[in-house]
Amino acid sequence: MSESTFAAPLADVPDGGVLAVEVEGTEIALVRQGDEVYAIRDECSHASIPLSEGDVNVDPAKGPSIECWLHSSTFSLRTGEPLNFPATEPVPTYPTTIEGGRVYVALPEEN
Fold first, then answer.
1. CB 61: neighbour CB atoms within 10 A?
2. How many CB atoms lie within 10 A of CB 108?
3. Along the 111 residues of the chain, how does pLDDT read in single tens digits?
4. Predicted TM-score (pTM) above 0.90
5. Sign (positive or negative) of CA dihedral 7, 4, 37, 68
6. Distance, CA of 100 to CA of 91 (rounded, Å)
7. Which of 63, 81, 82, 95 is the most exposed place for a label (fewest CB within 10 A)?
């Protein structure tokens, strides 16, 4: 992983919602659930649709997820794994940190 890069002010990420951002040329959906912010590539692995346009879900058994609006594939915000069909491939997720009211994302070195 590379050094963490500033992604957005925490106040811009709606609690229970999504903010689409670009970090070092990578489109990312930031999802906030209370004190947690998740970062997932902003592209469904099934149909190349922006996940930031979908719905955020919180299932006590499966954890937080985001649903693609086009075919309803849902992805874990923790792992990027698809939780249902038609998607079968995971979506990359990235570590986040919050410092001084700012959200930072660590991308892989090859980005």
1. 4
2. 10
3. 678 999 999 999 999 999 999 999 999 999 999 999 999 999 999 999 999 999 999 988 889 999 999 999 999 999 999 999 999 999 999 999 999 999 999 999 874
4. yes
5. positive
6. 28
7. 95
Written as six digits, the tokens of 47 are 């149909």
**Of residues 76, 82, 70, 72, the one with CA closest to residue 31:** 76
Q: Per-residue DSSP letters for 40-97?
A: EESS-TTT---GGGSEEEEETTTEEEEE-TTT--EEETTT--BSSSS--S---EE-EE
Q: How far apart are CA 60 and CA 13, in angstroms?
A: 22
Residue 31 backbone zone (phi > 0: left; psi -120 to 50: alpha; other: beta)? beta
C-alpha span between 1 and 67 (Å, rounded) = 26
Residue with structure tokens 């099934």? 46
